[in-house]
Amino acid sequence: MRSRVSSVVMTTLDPTPPTQSPARTEAPRGSRRAWLGAAGIAIASLAFVGGFVAREAVRTPAPPTPTPRSPEPAAEVARKLLPATVYIRSGQTAGSGVIYDAKGLILTAAHVVEDQVEVTVRLSDGTPLAGKVLGRDAGRDVAVIKVEHKGLHAAELARNRPVRVGELAVAIGSPFGDRETVTAGVVSGIGGTLPTLEGAVDVIRTDAAIHPGNSGGPLADVDAGVIGINIARRGSLGLAVPIDVAFDTASYLTRGKPAPPVAQLGVSGTDPADPRSGALVKVVEPGTPAAAAGIVEGDLITAIDGEQLEGMFELAAAIRKHAPGDEVTLTVVRDGTSRKIKVTLGEHT
Fold first, then answer.
1. How much is the pLDDT for 48?
2. Which site in 13, 22, 69, 221 is 20 to 30 Å from 197, CA atoms measured?
């Protein structure tokens, strides 16, 4: 019986027909068993190692593909607007400005140029230029400068578009002449009056820091559109002339004409936090047409002359279309009741 088993095993290991096999001496049974045992262990070990390697290959994940980093919004705004931001030196006063026309027109603040006719302008690349003051409106704190230079980079003005409380605001300036500054925050409020050298102007308020010398520089939105011209800092808030006011004023100044007087209502506020539309009054300034007409804090102004208002921006824009002395009818919601209030607009003085 043992001989038959050995014969079968040997035939399996050596398939050569017996008639062709050379004569050989049969190894002792113990040696054959040892050899077979070692071969089995080796095969089992190879199978185990192969399976382990295969499993490890499956378990080891491929390194993740790096995701391109999205640019920071404020950094992207700065990249687009810094080439259009300039440094301005006027006598003993320094400030900033923004090129808004590639033909060499620069918007800045009236208090930056003071009463000078000629100023020094330095581009973002350090190029010094002679600037001519085309005009200034001290009441709105807006001035226009003209330079002669080819290849100027002009900023995009976000005209005739609503500015919303809470949206990104980036203030850019060149306050020290040798480097620019960029600060970011949000629009904190719309409306409200800032006294100027020769009057007052409605402003955009922002918590983006306004450094000394940033006056005249651009306040921009997330798309790098200029929404205002920085003019002052009051406490923790920066103040900017809305770009529509600055541009409309500049259109008169470039033609050598004084800008018409600005109508005043005398309120500041924000958009309502709930789904309602309208301008929510936060402050009524004493001695203004709004105060005389009985407008109070907490009133929601929903329409002017029957035209519905989406928010405070639309109210300010509607007032700007009027002249001092015009009478307007405000639709006001107070304590859940709607009422009509007539107001005779005043003049910023």
1. 43
2. 221
Q: How far from the centroid of its chain's Cα atoms is residue 26's Cα?
A: 91
Which residues of the chain fall below pLDDT 50? Answer: 1-57
State yes or no: is 188 an active-site residue.
Answer: no
Q: Where are the alpha helices (DSSP H) in the chain?
A: 2-13, 29-59, 73-81, 110-113, 243-253, 289-293, 312-320
Structure confidence by residue, pLDDT tens digits, 267-313: 988 888 888 899 999 999 999 999 999 999 999 999 999 999 988 88
What does the alpha-carbon distance between residue 182 and residue 222 come to, in Å, rounded to a whole number? 13
Active site residue 211: no
Q: Are 171 and 219 in contact (CB under 8 A)?
A: yes
Measure the CA–CA gap between 175 and 181, rounded to whole angstroms: 7
Going from the C-alpha of 162 to that of each of 80, 130, 175, the distances in angstroms are: 21, 35, 28
- Residue of 90, 96, 141, 244 with catalytic role: 141
The predicted-structure confidence for 3-53, as pLDDT tens digits, reads as follows: 433 333 333 334 444 444 444 444 444 444 444 444 444 444 444 444 444
Question: How many other C-beta atoms are found inside a 10 Å radius of the C-beta of residue 187?
Answer: 24
Is-catalytic flag, 348? no
Q: Parallel, antiparallel, or unpaired: how do β-strands 237-242 and 263-264 relate?
A: unpaired
| Cβ(234)–Cβ(200) below 8 Å | no
Amino acid 65: pLDDT: 63
Catalytic residue, chosen from 90, 96, 215, 268, is 215
